[in-house]
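Action item from last week, closing it out:
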Amino acid sequence: MDFFEVVDARRSVRAFADALVEPEELRQILQAANRAPSAGNLQAYEIVVVRDPTRKRALIEASGGQGFVGAAPVVLVFCAHPARSAPRYHERGERLYSVQDATIACTHSMLAATALGLATVWVGAFDDEAVRAALDLRKSWLPVAILPVGHPAEASPATSRRELSDLVHET
């Protein structure tokens, strides 16, 4: 697919088929995350790859019972690593740039998964401390996105979007 086909094909999928994500597919997804732009090229984020059923169950609980989180064969958890931004960008780097870095990396992962014919759904509704406990994360890492990855169990229709005239503002 070309880039615009990937963007058009990306959907939030909450039903995953019982099929593994191949190691090479996961490597490509993680490599895409690693190529994401970041403030000062500091890459102020960490990615936790979760395959363990017990930890996935804990992520379901941490996300308020969103069962599809555990239905995917692989779950990626993107965490901001504020201390990587702090020396150069101080408080703004800690508070904002590290979170932006993690979200850009997650977006690259979503698009890479789509290009490979895989499905994802961005999960932002979760309890930070419960995610930290589920994955034994360092206190200094801030979980910002959970990304289940797998083969779609069904086709998902496109969702409506705002008109550009409502979204874009020129000055």
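Closing note: The beta strands are 45-50, 74-80, 119-120, 142-150.
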